Amino acid sequence: MGKASMEPKILLEISQYIKTFIEPNEGQATKCDFVRLAMATCNLVSQLLFGMRREYDDREFISLMSAMEDDLQTLGTLSIFKNLPFGSWLLASTLKKRNRSLDVQYNAIRRLIGDHKASLNSDEPKDLADHFLIEQSRPENKDLYIYSGLFIPINQWYL
């Protein structure tokens, strides 16, 4: 996946973003929030990892991006609380909120990997996940290509 192969995908994502979020508000102030920008970015990464993109009105995608936003806000709150002398008693509820956000994110990743395994065509790998799963299926790579080797990069890149 070089620059030339990603260019059409980037242009498609930009045009979809403009069509969905900019054009309906033409002549008015446009809300440019975290979730909308994260959706566009995650779609580009998703095309690299999974060879697919999601529509901006996909409820699961919106839920995933909202959970990611909640997680980032919670991390900011945790960093403030840990520096306060009375902050430790506030941490418990904040950590519960973060765990709920992480559950949403991790379940989405597990579903994506499972769906990808189910539709894998070893003869025609189309993305990074396919290449990883093919290498993982080879007996000589059994101990080298473990599940977390795909899960962790997806978690870091995609989310």
The helicity comes to: over 70%
Global mean pLDDT: 81
- Uncertain segments: none
Our measurement of the CA-to-CA distance between the termini, rounded to an integer number of angstroms, reads 20 Å
Strand content: under 5%
Order of helices and strands: HHHHHH
Oligomer: single chain
Radius of gyration: 19 Å
Supply the number of helical segments: 6
Task: Characterize the largest beta sheet: strand count, sense, and whether it forms a barrel.
Answer: none
* Shape summary: flat
Q: Main attributes?
A:
single chain, 6 helices
Describe this structure in words.
It is flat and about 55 Å long. The model has no long low-confidence stretch (mean pLDDT 81). It is built from six helices and no strands. Helix 1 runs antiparallel to helix 2, helix 3 runs antiparallel to helix 4 (88-118) and helix 4 packs across helix 6 (148-158). It is an all-alpha fold and 159 residues long. It has one domain (3-158). The chain is 70% helix and 0% strand. The two termini are 20 Å apart.
Which secondary structure elements does this structure contain, and how are they paired or packed?
Layout: H1 3-22, H2 34-50, H3 59-81, H4 88-118, H5 128-137, H6 148-158
